[in-house]
């Protein structure tokens, strides 16, 4: 139970309101009768999603369906207020009429519309909401945005929303993690039509805020299926359950029928290389992408609809090479000094042999140098470069949204979809021939660049029924979702298997399944003060996480470097000299003599790397099949004490099969100082159990750590779960749940029609935030730790710190209509935030050879703290101006990313860390559109049109990346063209 907001503070209020509501007689509603009607444009086009409310009682109303129809209860003295974004509002006296046909006139200054996220009432406008909610009409903006997928669209229009697109880092580029308020991706809850969306099976181990995290893969939902997105910027765990610590993103699907809309987009990146000079390779335009979207809806017997959307995407990779000079061929390679495990010579430089046979002294001298051999083979340093950049993606997805009215009070609904995504990314270091433990001349004489792949299938389905039981609205639904990711590697091999190793491998499969069953009740009571809405319900959620092993060669240790001795004697080769290890050093005893061996003895002559290169496959020891069951119940109430003063509260009980029970709550209020100015505030507690992925993920990957010369050297690191032997022996404890407290205060201001401003301050405190430790090796730990983890190093997920995120958000919009069917729309949005580690956690670990300070530094390392506190922009500004004149429209948008400081764990001889601060960056997007006909539109434009690259990393930090990846990224300018049509 949370300390700051106790259940005995909230529960009595909610229970009193609930009991009062149940006991309230309904005589006051006796004269109300059913009112029906339809809403259309001046040209008789039916309008879906129009708000029809009873004046003076904004909680009593309806929303038009896909056929423009509505029904509600009203009395003859009531006045109906009909409003819809982009149209002039209209008021109609009910009188004796029971059926209406209402026409609305267009008016671009009408920006307020109802939101359903954050309330279980009929809905409130953005200005009326007691908590901040952004409403983004995807169907209206997708035509003028350069971005083509949902996560990137939202990142460029909502300042508090972020989706850092990784340009490397193993699997981190395979799903874009989404964030709110600079919190971790797993502290945001994603809903579709108000129902919980399942996350990706992937655990992203390196996020923009330094925390391992799961995330919803928004790319699996076609943009053409989405009507709008509502972003609730407030803690809402008490309303919606675990994960809604930073807020909620609710994706509302389209319902329209008898209209085909589609678009075809093509674009690419200029790839000018930025300001890095010789460190980059001159490139041609790359990253070409093509996307086709379509949407169409069918009527079902005039009582229902099914709306179907599809998307096909093809993206080519962007390659941003870092042309380094780390030494590609060593002396043993250049001079043919290597041997196999039997002591036979391995010819790695046949060009030198040929020159020696020919007696060409000058050529012999040249071929013994890197530059000379590369020249002879037609190679340059760029051929050995590390590649960062966006992955290649092939994606196909389909979504549907359906509903059917069984009778006037009961309707059936269903929605869901499926998608398939193949991704091939550049996320691995180039394997140089000088790395003898990861080299094979027959397979890759000049080294190789492994590439990771993933085949992801995603399915989801929700079915439900809404009806009435007495005066209560009832919603019963079941939501199922499954994400399956099959991981692979191409252009790789297992060095310990030698030349017989496959070069393309199946690394294993990750799968996450979630099933949620919900039963929700709600009722609005007009006679309690100025209106009371009560909602309550229950949820049962079952989750399953699987790791399925890959092919054996991807995780095994072979015998290519292991010699089985044939007879007793000395460990020598055919020439009688001692056998040599992988570094061409003779294997001898303390006196320099060959080792004595016996027949049948197995001797590791060459310590060749095991597993698939870059990213080891998942083997039997990694396999998992874990379940969790969560039961939850909530009570939610909204009471208008007066027309000016609204209070709302929520109370939730949840029980986890693996973490026990928890009680959380929320209070919120809004007070209207005047018709144009309101203040609002909230306080909430939250709870997040570690995901099944965080609890059970285990894997071995290759990390690269700079040596004394600053050259990254490979190191095999295994992430162990906290219930493993490696964790118990070291003293690592099991993961605890994260507990949070959220505080918010803000105001809304609407001085004139068409001009809206919101300003909100927030603070989010999270106890026991989960981070990942640095590396522990056997020599540091001592206590025979090598018997547990072997020659590699170990790291773990731990409750590393108590953290705080606070900030100020401002959003303003203004639309100005001019004569001649012209208009300007101005918008400015900003977030000023600060993340702080309040308290670093540590344990008394069983470590023999590290100081206390060193243990603290490894438990929560300096660079991880820096990534959370200063690793992403603390300031983000988005300003745009859009102009429309008849058939022509244009949009200019600027995005400013504040300064970023990356902290390092490496330092010079004087103890100065290799930290680096990157100055603020501003980029601009521009688009032009023209309506060729009523049914055909075209647009062209670009993102980052001035080709702004971030600053280059200081030389000590140049490893995989050449540029910082925490602002706009290093893809540079992108230009596109789009054709849109509808029939």
Tell me briefly what this model is:
This protein is mainly beta and 983 residues long. The two termini are 55 Å apart.
Q: What does the model show?
A:
There is one protein chain. With 983 residues, the chain is mainly β. The strands form 11 sheets. The protein has a 22-stranded antiparallel barrel. The chain has a 5-stranded mixed beta sheet with strand order 10-15-16-13-14. Strand 2 (51-54) and strand 3 (57-63) form a beta hairpin. Mean pLDDT is 88; it is low at 1-8, 10-30 and 108-113.
SSE layout and pairing:
Blueprint: H1 7-23, E1 33-41, E2 51-54, E3 57-63, E4 69-74, E5 79-83, E6 90-93, E7 99-104, E8 114-115, E9 124-125, E10 133-136, H2 138-141, H3 150-155, E11 161-162, E12 179-180, E13 188-192, E14 195-196, E15 226-232, H4 237-240, E16 247-253, E17 261-269, E18 286-300, E19 304-315, E20 320-322, H5 331-334, E21 338-339, E22 345-346, H6 350-358, H7 361-367, H8 370-376, E23 386-388, E24 392-407, E25 410-425, E26 451-469, E27 472-490, E28 505-525, E29 532-549, E30 562-564, E31 569-570, E32 596-597, E33 602-604, E34 624-640, E35 645-656, E36 660-672, E37 677-688, H9 692-696, E38 699-706, E39 712-720, H10 725-730, E40 738-749, E41 755-772, E42 776-777, H11 778-781, H12 786-789, E43 793-818, E44 822-840, H13 852-859, H14 862-870, E45 875-885, E46 888-897, E47 900-902, E48 916-918, E49 921-931, E50 936-943, E51 974-982
Parallel strand pairs: 1-7, 13-16, 39-43
Antiparallel strand pairs: 1-4, 2-3, 2-5, 5-6, 8-9, 10-15, 11-12, 13-14, 15-16, 17-18, 17-51, 18-19, 19-24, 20-23, 21-22, 24-25, 25-26, 26-27, 27-28, 28-29, 29-34, 30-33, 31-32, 34-35, 35-36, 36-37, 37-40, 38-39, 40-41, 41-43, 42-43, 43-44, 44-45, 45-46, 46-49, 47-48, 49-50, 50-51
Helix pairs in contact: 6-7, 7-8
